[in-house]
Design brief:
The complex is a heterodimer of chains A (about 120) and B (about 110).
Chain A (H helix, E strand, L loop, with lengths): L3 E4 L2 E4 L5 E7 L5 E7 L5 E7 L6 E2 L6 E5 L5 E5 L8 E8 L10 E2 L3 E5 L1
Parallel strand pairs in A: 2-11
Antiparallel strand pairs in A: 1-3, 3-8, 4-5, 4-9, 5-6, 7-8, 9-10, 9-11
Chain B lengths: L3 E2 L4 E5 L4 E7 L4 E9 L6 E7 L4 E4 L2 E6 L4 E6 L8 E9 L8 E2 L3 E6 L1
Parallel strand pairs in B: 2-11
Antiparallel strand pairs in B: 1-3, 3-8, 4-5, 4-9, 6-7, 7-8, 9-10, 9-11
The chains are: A mainly beta (about 120), B mainly beta (about 110).
């Protein structure tokens, strides 16, 4: 049981290049999330998808777009990468939203450097 | 505006002793709290949680305490082991009907020395 799988694990981009980070979960979870982790700032929510077909902005959405392709997959796209987007990106999923306990399960992360 | 704050970036303890990690929050709408552990080059993994209707939750060596009036929670690890060395994040969830977004603290690096 793989859980949450992120690809690629590492990526180096030049300023202005675009790329898509892929995320897939095999736990039949309804909700999926994208975070970035920067030193001293913890995990900050970029976008999330409460259920298939819906997406919403998180705390730091500027410069990113997302697609909830189906229940399993949630991708994060950088249209024109900037050095400020150098970070470690984590995808997560959880069983359901609402008042239920929201235990999120994380992938191993994508380390992105923008030069 | 940091709604969840972990004021200690790092903590070092001896093996066998107690580790106490602290977390403060400002949003009174938070009603569910979680601790995650993160090893280098891995994603965070869920450790333990507590609902606001409780003041303590215990799971083996790990206990989380919640003081709602002080908007403070703490994670106790007893006894601490070298394998506990990791970054610990506290997170909080508001009581709402959609989204169930978690707000994370900055993290505390715990080092347990043999």
């Amino acid at each position: 049981n793989a859980g949450v799988t992120q690809t690629p694990k590492f990526q180096v981009l030049k300023t202005g290049q675009s790329m898509t980070l892929q995320c897939a979960q095999d736990m039949n979870h309804n909700s999926m999330y994208w975070y970035r982790q920067d030193p001293g700032m913890g995990l900050r929510l970029i976008y999330y998808s409460a259920s298939e077909g819906t997406t919403d902005k998180g705390e730091v959405p500027n410069g990113y777009n997302v697609s909830r392709l189906n229940k399993r997959e949630f991708s994060l796209r950088l249209e024109s990468a900037a050095p400020s987007q150098t970070s470690v990106y984590f995808c997560a999923s959880s069983r359901r939203t609402g008042l239920a306990k929201n235990i999120q399960y994380f992938g191993a992360g994508t380390r992105l450097s923008v030069l | 505006d940091q709604q969840v704050k972990q004021n200690s970036p790092s903590l070092s303890v001896q093996e066998g002793r107690i580790s106490i990690l602290n977390c403060d929050y400002t949003n009174s709408m938070f009603d569910y709290f979680l601790w995650y552990k993160k090893y280098p080059a891995e994603g965070p993994t869920f450790l333990i949680s507590i609902s606001s209707i409780k003041d303590k939750n215990e799971d083996g060596r790990f206990t989380v305490f919640l003081n709602k009036s002080a908007k403070h929670l703490s994670l106790h690890i007893v006894p601490s082991q070298p394998g506990d060395s990791a970054v610990y994040f506290c997170a909080a969830q508001p009581q709402e009907t959609s989204g169930s977004r978690l707000t994370f603290g900055e993290g505390t690096q715990l080092t347990v020395n043999p």
